[in-house]
Amino acid sequence: MKNVLVLAPLAVFAAIAGAFAVGLTRDPSAIPSALIDRPLPEFDLPPIQGFQQGLASADLKGEVSLLNVFGSWCVSCHIEHPVLMQLAASGAVPIRGLNWKDKPGDGAAWLARLGNPYDRIGDDPEGRVIFDLGVTGAPETFVIDKEGRVRYKHTGPITPEVWEKTLRPLIEELRKA
Amino acid sequence: MRRLFAILLGLFLATSVLAVEPEEMLADAALEARAEALDRELRCVVCQSQSIAESNADLAREMRIVVRERLTAGDSDKEVLAYLVARYGDYVLLRPPMQANTLILWLFPAVTLIVSAAGAFIYLRRAPTPAPQPLTAEEAGALEALLAREIDKPELK
Prior knowledge:
- The complex is a heterodimer.
- In chain A, the strands form two sheets. Chain A has a five-stranded mixed sheet with strand order 5-4-3-6-7. Chain A has a two-stranded antiparallel ribbon with strand order 1-2.
- Chain A has helices at 2-24, 75-90, 106-114, 128-132, 160-176, and strands at residues 44-45, 55-56, 65-70, 95-100, 120-124, 140-144, 150-155.
- In chain A, strand 6 and strand 7 form a beta hairpin.
- Chain A is α/β, with parallel strands linked by helices.
- Chain A is built from five helices and seven strands.
- In chain B, helix 2 (29-41) packs across helix 3.
- Chain B contains six helices and no strands.
- Chain B has helices at residues 2-14, 29-41, 58-72, 77-88, 103-126, 137-152.
- By secondary structure, chain B is mainly α.
- At the A-B interface, loops of A face helix 3 and helix 4 of B.
């Protein structure tokens, strides 16, 4: 009994050190979304300059899709863009864009230069919808299920690894549901 | 030396200056005071360890504007906080609310204090130093003999 008690402080230390070690492996900038498993907030955004279709929350129902927040000013979006282009070309999943805080024409010019992976784009120059979505930065990508609910949020660029390991399995699962 | 001290003091004070810009402020002083109190409760979600009162990040600025819009629209302080929590989650509050998933956070320090105090109390009570027993006749005799031998022995030089 006494021997066990002598080891107690060591056990407490080990437990705390373990908790901290796990904490260190996590990305502190990835904030859990408050919207997970909740329907998207209602919105109806106009198209960006030179495009016909805008984006409304109703457009994100009926099939599993990605809602991607981007801006021509966003460096990481530049890194992410080729991955989105590949996904769009392979028809893996429909991607809807939210153009955040771009000056009129900047978003369209960016897409004209790099290609357009989005089938619909909403323009949010003041970031009102962005705010309702709890977005903290670009790029950020939401996985939306058939009922228009948010099922996952990815903060930062989608890399081929993120797609293979996280997004694709999730999307396949959601399609079965 | 005095100048160095003044510079250090200035640097120290600089950290507590509010980031709110004059054009963001509300004309109504009472409402602005409430807004600034709320700013200090809200985390800047991109800078994380700063409140939106301290941060000059774009998003913090937008959050300050939203706080002021909600207040102007007639929201109570609680409603403003709820509005932001609905969007950014509990994470946006610098003071985590007391609820099921934060109980351990709130209770752990108190529980640790009570448990260790109780442990210390029990430990100190449980092991009192035994009261000295008088020597038995046999032990007293042995002691006498020892002492006598020590005294008889000539001192070594």
